[in-house]
Amino acid sequence: MANLIVQHWCGPSQRWAELAEQTIRMYSKNVGAEYLLIKDYPMGDMIAQKQSKPYLVLQKLYVLNEAFDHYDDVLLLDMDMIATKVMDNIFNYPGIGRLHKKGMSVVNASKNGRKWPTLYKQGEPMFFGNCVKLNKHQRKELRFALKKDIIDNNMSSDELPPNDEILLHHLLYVTGILKDQDTLELPHDRFCDLPEEAHQDATLLHFCGGRKWKIEETIRNLYGLEIL
Description:
By secondary structure, this protein is of the alpha/beta class.
């Protein structure tokens, strides 16, 4: 069984991102998975764009590419995720990620529904984009359903293309690939949560927003001089 952990980065390097990446690389090695950092705009050649600059928000869906079909599971992690020294193997758990239950409740409950209401289906699975694990069958089915007109015909009122969360939500609905799956969520308190919400023995932590500036300090406390 071959598994892969993927992260995406675009733009000038940041110290917090470099340090966080090192922890995820170490984690990948410890759980026997390969690691890949994708940079810039890999989706630029996959989907015809209306604008001259490829859509940054779409780039994480590059994991649906057939180039990854030889992997069983592909785990997509945001760059502001770090791995602790509690090396629990996420690939041993069923589930996709953490459900955005508030966003699923009503169209205006999150940015995803407010900006792209035509792609929204109330009550259908919607996952936070920071930690998403998809198996080979799921990736293939989602890829076949991802057509360029879904992007082109669903720009927001402020001319933004659909982000990865609403696109994945839409594709999961139209394919129906999760309708017979019993377990949708990973143990998110151990793999997907914010540091202040996570289990004390969490393996992966998410430092979104202003928390990013605490990554270096957190890693120093966890690893000392091993990684700095």
